[in-house]
Specification:
The chain is an all-alpha fold. It has a two-stranded antiparallel ribbon with strand order 1-2. β1 and β2 form a beta hairpin. The longest helix is centred in the last third of the chain and has 25 residues. 45% of the residues are buried.
């Protein structure tokens, strides 16, 4: 069997697992978030009305502030329904999109880290809890994370000192611009991306003194900017409404939570299992105790998933790594964390991961550089293979446990969606958020 066929079968297998999570597992975020995201596209499909606005932005008091401008979110849900009018079609497209995004990131890292086996990197990246549980249901974050994976892959390829050359430089710059406006229509974390673009353009200009990288970046923005222009041209469009909620003064709680934020940032790239087993320690232990076949891998992932974060913190002080790009990767992860921390100091948002989820690729990149550093030790290499195996075994078992409960968005609302499609009435599924702009 050729390697291409083997990798294709691996992709299909990982896609099937991720799709199963999206269809059968209770959502991590409140189910209403999935319903509202689905409704945006369902309204576009059933009415044909141009979707000027996407996902809603609400205050901590659940007051609607605005919706993200642009048609992208509605099209991502609605166009699959136009191709195949079945409740399943948006889930198929979403998971194909997010699986491809993580695969793109993982494949790039396998080229950068040849000492690490791609058979380790690809399953590891696509089955990490924060990559699997959080990006397979119809949340806006499930779509934006795919853009983030492509963005940071292109970012690394655009840097003169880190280029591998497998992506042409003009394309790398264009992809950064494209992904910026992709995420600008899906989630407000897009405001963290421009500093990376500016840094890349500066480093390219310092080396070649050419403006072509800037021009290709702008060119890449045009296709998705075109989906936002109809919104900007509305008579009742107000820029002030769109920037509402971005800043609320100094947040003392977030200032004091720097170490909490640091652990959560690094846990994005770790087997941080407890977060997905229950709301508190009692519920999590109860779940594992009630599932004898999952107890051993679950307990293993719980213990060593937490230790992973400690190890990743410690490697920030690895000053003797012989890799020429290690210093930059370490700096990139540290500055990315400080960027998140600084942004959260001036907002009323909490330190929850959903407020900086699109920065996950940076944590993953850093973590795999750490694992490559340890890969030379046979005991560590065997341990990481066991770690990966337990992770996959647990996630497959978790789906089998959750599916019969029928608590997922798809299983609970499949018939309502089917009726909405047939009657061309999106309100059969539910009502849009009160005061919705679209």
């Amino acid at each position: 069997m050729s390697n291409r066929l083997k990798f294709f079968l691996l992709f299909v297998s990982l896609f099937a697992l991720r799709l199963a999570f999206g269809l059968f597992v209770f959502p991590v975020q409140p189910m209403e978030d999935e319903i509202q995201t689905y409704l945006i596209g369902l309204k576009y499909f059933t009415t044909g009305a141009w979707p000027y606005y996407g996902n809603y932005v609400v205050s901590p008091n659940d007051e609607l502030l605005t919706q993200d401008p642009g048609a992208l979110q509605a099209l991502l849900v609605g166009l699959p329904l136009k191709i195949w009018p079945d409740p399943l079609s948006p889930f198929l497209f979403l998971n194909l999109l997010s699986t491809a995004g993580f695969w793109f990131l993982g494949w790039t890292l396998s080229l950068r880290l040849p000492k690490l086996s791609p058979w380790f990197i690809l399953p590891w990246v696509l089955t990490l809890p924060w990559c699997l549980h959080y990006s397979t249901g119809t949340l806006n974050l499930s779509y934006s994370i795919a853009g983030a994976c492509v963005f940071f892959t292109a970012f690394l390829e655009s840097l003169p000192s880190l280029r591998l050359g497998w992506i042409p430089l003009p394309l790398a710059n264009a992809l950064m611009g494209f992904c910026l406006f992709w995420n600008a229509q899906l989630h407000r974390v897009w405001v963290l991306l421009p500093p990376f673009i500016l840094a890349s353009l500066f480093l390219q200009w310092r080396r070649d003194r050419k403006i072509t990288p800037f021009l290709f970046t702008v060119l890449g923005t045009l296709p998705l900017l075109a989906l936002m222009i109809p919104t900007f041209l509305l008579n009742d469009y107000h820029f002030h409404r769109d920037v509402s909620g971005l800043s609320f003064g100094f947040n003392l709680n977030n200032f004091l939570g720097i170490f909490t934020l640091l652990s959560r940032f690094l846990s994005l790239a770790s087997q941080e299992l407890p977060r997905f087993l229950g709301l508190n320690t009692t519920e999590r232990i109860s779940f594992l105790s009630s599932q004898p076949l999952l107890f051993l891998p679950g307990a293993f992932l719980w213990i060593f998933g937490i230790l992973q974060v400690v190890i990743l913190m410690g490697f920030w002080f690895d000053f003797r790594n012989p890799r020429p790009d290690w210093k930059f990767i370490r700096l990139l992860s540290g500055l990315s964390f400080l960027l998140i921390y600084t942004a959260l100091l001036f907002t009323d948002k909490t330190l929850d991961v959903n407020h900086y989820y699109e920065m996950l690729p940076v944590a993953v990149i850093y973590s795999l550089y750490v694992w490559e550093r340890c890969w030379a030790f046979q005991a560590v290499r065997r341990f990481l293979w066991v770690f990966l195996s337990f992770g996959i075994i647990f996630q497959i078992g978790y789906v089998l446990v959750q599916a019969p409960r029928k608590e997922s968005f798809y299983l609970k609302y499949r018939e309502a969606i089917r009726q909405a499609i047939q009657s061309k009435d999106y309100e059969v599924l539910g009502k849009r958020w009160p005061g919705s702009l679209y």
